[in-house]
Amino acid sequence: MTPAELQALIRTVPDFPAPGVQFRDITTLIAHGDGLKASVAHLAAHARDAGAQAIAGMEARGFIFGAAVAIELGVGFVPVRKPGKLPVETIGIDYALEYGVDRLEMDPKAVAQGQRVVLVDDLIATGGTACAAAKLLRQAGAIVDHAAFVIDLPDLGGAKRLAEIGVSVSALMDFAGE
Which residues form the Phosphoribosyltransferase domain (predicted)? Predict the structure, then answer.
């Protein structure tokens, strides 16, 4: 399936989670077997071209696509988790949200020094989570200079924020506006 055909599988939910927001819902895409398979294949091609030695995904929807891409490439998957979810000593990073602060954590032994890790997630909006994940992976010793997303919301500037920290972005599709 082409990216345009995949984009047609994305459901838009108006006024969620707040009035005026057009929520891009991937559940209709992941429920479509051929659409999910094609999305993973496209993301895997980007990660392969970037020289991925591992794939990292952010909780929660990044786990769906990231683990599938890792399987497709035959490389490991590094989960970047919400706080308190890992049973081992972790490293973490706090990052700003629109109305507060959040945190990501990971097992620092999940990547090898100098290992090329590609970030994979369902959507890039403001880039806060993706930038934090890239910084955290780098703190653990990974090389992170590529990220692949199913959806980019370019008006929110996330791809630009990632570029500013040396991470190039590819996305299967984009939606103007929020």
Answer: 35-152
